[in-house]
Write a structure and sequence with these properties.
Jelly Rolls; 140 residues; alpha+beta; two-stranded antiparallel sheet; 3 helices
């Protein structure tokens, strides 16, 4: 069998494995106002850009914590996101800078109000239910 054919066969199987057995994100348990959440950690460029895109649901006590390499004005949008979300922007001191609720189909860009290092995405209206507000410090 020629080498090139063998290489294509190997690449084909790697592609199939990647499609059917996606890599799981690391998770972390956090507590917000006495409610425990399991959040997936997004920290690589690919994870940060994909986020919760393509998913059709998010359990009540689940979310995603985006961790950026440095503090900056963060920008998020809802492209390919099918779940209404609260975007909780958090600075390097783990204080909430601002909270934005984004609806499915809203493609406007959502910004942190000041440089942030993290964004915690939870189901829409969770921040209100938990009485989270700018200035609160979170234990991430």
């Amino acid at each position: 069998m020629p080498k090139i054919t063998l290489i294509f066969i190997i690449l084909f199987f790697i592609f199939i494995i990647y499609l059917y057995f996606p890599f799981k994100l690391k998770t972390k348990k956090i507590t917000l106002n006495n409610q425990e959440f399991t959040v997936e950690i997004a920290s690589t460029p690919n994870q940060l850009s994909k986020g919760l895109g393509g998913r059709s649901s998010l359990c009540d006590n689940c979310g995603m914590l985006f961790i950026f390499p440095s503090s900056q004005i963060l920008q998020f949008w809802m492209k390919d996101t099918n779940i209404p979300l609260d975007m909780i922007f958090i600075d390097a001191n783990k204080k909430i800078t601002n909270i934005v609720t984004a609806q499915v189909g809203d493609l406007s860009i959502k910004y942190s109000s000041s440089p942030a290092l993290y964004c915690l995405e939870l189901n829409a209206n969770t921040a209100t239910r938990l009485n989270l507000k700018p200035g609160d410090t979170l234990n991430l």
